[in-house]
Design goal:
By secondary structure, the protein is mostly beta strands. The chain contains no helices and eleven strands. Helices cover 0% and strands 52% of the residues.
Length: 117
C-alpha cells in the first residue's frame, strides 16, 4: 500500500510560481514512476507529466512544457512539481500518482491551485 499526500497549492497571480510536493509512504518510493495530473472544473483529468524512478527522465504535456519541472528526492520519498509562469488556465486540482504496475495505482487527495488574472 502506498499513501501519497500533496501540498503546496494555493492562490497565485498570473505569472507567478508555485512548487507542489508529493510525500509518499513506504520503503520502495524509488521504484515508482511518479506522475502529476490535474483536473479543472468541468473538465476531465489531464496528464501533466511524469518522472522516471531515478529522476533522470521526465515527460511533460505540451501545455506545460518549458514552464513546469518535475523532480524527485528518493531519500525523502518526495516528488515535486515546480510551476512557473502560471496562467489562469493552470487553475485546477493537482494530483500526484504512483505507477507501481502498468497503470497509476495510487493517488493523492489533490491540492488546489488557483491562478488569478
Amino acid at each position: 500500500q502506498v499513501q501519497l499526500e500533496e501540498s503546496g497549492g494555493g492562490l497565485v497571480q498570473a505569472g507567478g510560481s508555485l512548487r507542489l510536493s508529493c510525500a509518499a509512504s513506504g520503503r520502495t518510493f524509488s521504484s515508482y514512476i511518479m506522475g502529476w495530473f490535474r483536473q479543472a472544473p468541468g473538465k476531465e483529468r489531464e496528464f501533466v507529466g511524469r518522472i522516471s524512478t531515478s529522476g533522470t527522465t521526465t515527460v511533460y504535456a505540451n501545455s506545460v512544457k518549458g514552464r513546469f519541472t518535475i523532480s524527485r528526492d528518493n531519500a525523502k520519498n518526495t516528488a515535486y512539481l515546480q510551476m512557473n509562469s502560471l496562467t489562469p488556465e493552470d487553475t485546477a486540482v493537482y494530483y500526484c500518482a504512483a505507477k507501481v504496475t502498468t497503470s497509476y495505482d495510487y493517488w493523492g487527495q489533490g491540492t488546489q491551485v488557483t491562478v488569478s488574472s
